[in-house]
Amino acid sequence: MTVTNTAATAVASEAGPADPATVRRPRRGSAIGKRVWNAAGAGLVVAALAGIWEGYKALGRAFDDVLPGTRIGFPVATDDMSMPHVWSILGALVEPARRSDPTTLGSYLLGETGVTLREAFYGLLAGSSLGLLLAVLFLHLVPLSKGLMPWLVASQTVPLVAIAPMIVIWGGQAGAPPWVAVTGIAAYLAFFPVTINALRGLQSPPKVQLDFMRSVGANRRQVLGWLRVPAALPFVFAGLRLAATASVVGAIVGELSAGTGRGIGRAILTFAYYYSNGPEKLYAAVLVAAAAGIVFVQALALVERLALRHRQTR
Amino acid sequence: MSEAAIIAVRGVNKEFTGGNRSVTALRDIDLTIDRGEFVSLLGPSGCGKSTLLRILADLTEPTSGTVSLNGKTPRAARTDRDYGMVFQQAGLFEWRTVQRNVELPLQVAGVDKQTRRAKAQEMLELVRLTDFSRHLPWQLSGGMQQRVAIARALSADPEILFMDEPLGALDEMNRERLQGELLRIWSDTRTTVVFVTHSISEAVFLSSRIVVMSARPGRIAASIDVDLPYPRTAATRTTEAFFAKVTEVRTALHGVPAEQEVR
Ligand SMILES: Nc1ncnc2c1ncn2[C@@H]1O[C@H](COP(=O)(O)OP(=O)(O)OP(=O)(O)O)[C@@H](O)[C@H]1O
Ligand SMILES: [Mg+2]
After folding, report:
1. CATH homologous superfamily for A101-307?
2. pTM of the model
3. What is the value of ipTM here, to two decimals?
4. Which residues surround ligand 2, an ion (CB under 5 A)?
5. Is the CB of residue B48 below 6 angstroms from any atom belonging to ligand 1?
6. Which of A165, A162, A187 is CA-nearest to residue A178?
7. Mean pLDDT, to the nearest integer, of B103-123?
8. Spans of all domains in chain B
């Protein structure tokens, strides 16, 4: 094995990168192996978190929520009301959500999550389109970007809880259904990271590439389409990833402000209100919301991998 | 201006002004290059070689003076793709295959896909990289990337080829090999080449004429014809005539600043 390996290496280095057969993208097998390891790692983290939760709870139960030999209390109480068992949280998912209705809590939460993700997705779509448009505009109109950029930055520092009700009220007065306002809030959070990252990406081509385009007489549109935009793609995706997270947060917070009866944000609010009736339901809802966020961002990551599959992995 | 002249530079000056300081990069440049010549611009670092080449290519404006390229203004020559340019870094587009990089000037020109593809193949044959047409730039060595850049510069059939230290980033062996390739390509395509370098032996080996420049301010100090016969091969580098020419150029290069100091 070692011998053949060395021989292969020797041949490869002799031919250098000059032999087309030896110059290939990273091997498929190792990529899949890496994927499996990543999944295993993620599973391990989840298991560890569950373990810490249950361990803390067991300690608290054993010592009655007080550090042994002291009067120092545990920061969070560990009775079943404050910290339900992991299995009762998971168990709640497969039990009916309401007494009168056979629908399980899990499928109810999934339905509400679907509503939220749709709002987040439309918000991301609208927000990132606006973000890209602004980036291209700023690239070509530097004075505009100088004048407008501080306002964009300021717009993002205004607390969301202050903005959300305003958008909801405006949406209501315009006669739009509540989910439109929620989508608007998601878009409001999503556009900014896309604008900033896309602008940086559009400005990223090195001088030699810009000089080359000029040397072949390329016009502005050609420079934009064939050089700046492709060069900006990795930056745009970095921005989109931030925007995806932000749009989910925006959609959930938006639902809290809007008068919608739907969405995972609404569900969380309701379960928090009726906490004493079933604490595990609130935790289950939070769990589903978190999982949905991860799925949303991962779906985007998949698109990114597809779009950038020919780029060198740096 | 003679009938054969393809490049004519008359009284060109270039000043860079930044803040309150200004640098005279070029002073009183007069230069005529005939069709089919291989001219090297040779001089110490900072003498304005790149600046002069960029003015010819309409990548920089001269402060004063006129330039004519193929009987046109540099701007018209640029938008007509009368010249191709190779830079010190290959500067290939990393998301395009080698083939599509070479096609780019034709794509800008609005040439249809079929013709583009055929032309790119022809150019890749010229630089001997047909096997790599579907590779991406990062899969190639530096020397191969530079050959792709040469193919790309030539794909729109320019009459002039500008090169700014295209082999500067390569090791000695690759460099000499590519110098040979370059002469072959020059004789195959019959383009006029303006080549920037600060290597004396490179300039002597390649050029039919060497324009020696001096620094501060950048000006033309001498124009030396290199009458070594083409085709030149590795053997040329060891001839008596080659050494004599290298010495002559070196003397011109080093003699100039002293002479100017006396004045
Ligand atoms: N964009 C610029 N702004 C200001 N000064 C410049 C600029 N470009 C070049 N210069 C100055 O002009 C002079 C000539 O520069 P140039 O790059 O043409 O030299 P060069 O002969 O190509 O040098 P090298 O061999 O190191 O590439 C230098 O003094 C340099 O500092
Ligand atoms: Mg230079």
Report:
1. MetI-like (1.10.3720.10)
2. 0.83
3. 0.92
4. B 50
5. yes
6. A165
7. 95
8. 89-157
